Amino acid sequence: MTGNVYLHPITLVSGPQAVEGDAVRLGGSMVYAREFALVLRDETGAATRIVTTAAGMPEAIARLPDTAAREAERQWANIRKTHVPLQLGTRTIRLDQPQVMGILNVTPDSFSDGGQHEDLQAGRDHAAAMLEAGASIIDIGGESTRPGAAATFEDEEIRRVVPAVEYCAAMGGAISVDTRRAGVLAAALAAGAHMANDVSALRYDPRSIEVVAEAACPVVLMHAPGAGEDLHAGAKYADVVSEVFDFLKLARDRAIAAGVAEARIICDPGVGFGKSLGENLALINALPLFHSLGSPILLGASRKRMIGALSTEEAAGQRLAGSIALAVKGMEAGIHLLRAHDVAETVQARNVWRGLKDASLTDFSQLPPL
Question: What are the phi and psi torsion angles at 17 (to 5°)?
């Protein structure tokens, strides 16, 4: 057996006590898995699959050829990794429960709320409301990345983003900037931003990777098929899950080689970017796999078009229930960051989910019988 290795957690359990300890915690989250599938794909796409429990993983890895076994060992260690908190200015963002990243679009043409927060006071009010509702991070974007959106000039993007960074910084918020341009990122960091969110995985602007490395800031690397102006271009997958995994693995390795600290890299599978409905569903169902990369996972599915496609083609602003359903699916997979438009509702869903998980992790075996 030769080829690429993919270690999929396939059976999730309430906690290790439910299966006599034969489970592992996924990426330091509140989610545990008992059974795993070791998948090897060769150059033709043909797959070989070994299913084992956590206890049987060493034996399963020993059955692999040397190169595949070494990669499987890395992924097995990655799955069990506990991620250090993100330090964003004075704020420490722990990754042992899902954190909500609130979206602040300061563009005239965003797919979900185009123009609503471009005005300084409207943007300030929205940011304050999201922080008050429990957003751990505010993600500021000055360019629409929806399919068919016109490209934004760098100077114009800076003009939109920097004032928003300044008023969020004045509130004491942890700030991410959603940009693929090095000049915008540098200006935003200088104005008080703490984190980069690059939808091109640092490919669009060759200078971006240098800015991130020099600033020593956390960075989100997102999958998108297009490397140029159109992020959605060139999408053609034989197996979307393994190809997105491979892309993020290479993007992560490239960033580390350029001097970005491994602990500061976050991976996003890019739901909705150059993917069909079926491909988006496949990615969301396979989210536990991405713990094998060894980085925290961000899910950005809020108000995406797939929600309308699965329902009655509701407009973006009418997709709250579907957004919450996808957020809960992500939390059940152990993702670390939820990028959301509707912060108060998403935080409430997270808090209820957290309560359920806390209860399920209680060891009732020590209680006396009724």
Answer: -65, -20
Q: What does residue 221 show for φ and ψ, rounded to 5 degrees?
A: -105, 115
**How many of the other CB atoms lie within 10 Å of CB of 283?**
23
User: Which DSSP symbol is given to 294?
Assistant: S
Sheet holding 137-141, edge to edge: 265-268, 219-222, 195-198, 175-178, 137-141, 99-105, 337-340, 298-299
Q: State how far the Cα of 298 lies from the Cα of 176, in Å rounded to an integer.
A: 13
Q: Is 308 helix (H, G, I), strand (E, B) or coil?
A: helix
Segment 288-316 mean pLDDT:
97
- Phi then psi for 56, rounded to 5 degrees? -90, 0
Strand partners for 102: 138, 340
Q: Is the predicted pLDDT of residue 111 greater than 80, yes or no?
A: no
| Domain limits, CATH 3.20.20.20, in the chain | 86-357
Q: 30-34, 151-155, 356-360: which range is least confident on average?
A: 151-155
Residue 253 amino acid letter? D
Q: Which residues are catalytic?
A: 304, 339
- DSSP strand E in the chain: where? 4-13, 24-25, 32-41, 47-53, 86-88, 91-93, 99-105, 137-141, 175-178, 195-198, 219-222, 265-268, 298-299, 337-340
The SS3 call for residue 218 is coil
Report, as an integer, the average pLDDT of 291-295. 98
What percentage of the chain reaches a pLDDT higher than 90? 84
State yes or no: pLDDT of 190 exceeds 50.
Answer: yes
Q: What tens digit of pLDDT does each residue of 24-33 get?
A: 999 999 999 9
Considering the four listed CATH numbers 3.40.190.170, 3.40.640.10, 3.40.570.10, 3.20.20.20, the one that applies to the domain covering 86-357 is 3.20.20.20
- Asked whether residue 41 carries a pLDDT value surpassing 80, the answer given is yes
In the predicted model, what is the mean pLDDT of the chain?
Answer: 93
CA 59 to each of CA 52, 111, 195: distance values in angstroms, whole numbers, following the listed order: 9, 49, 41
DSSP 134-180: T-SEEEEE-S--STTPPP--HHHHHHHHHHHHHHHHHTT--EEEE-S
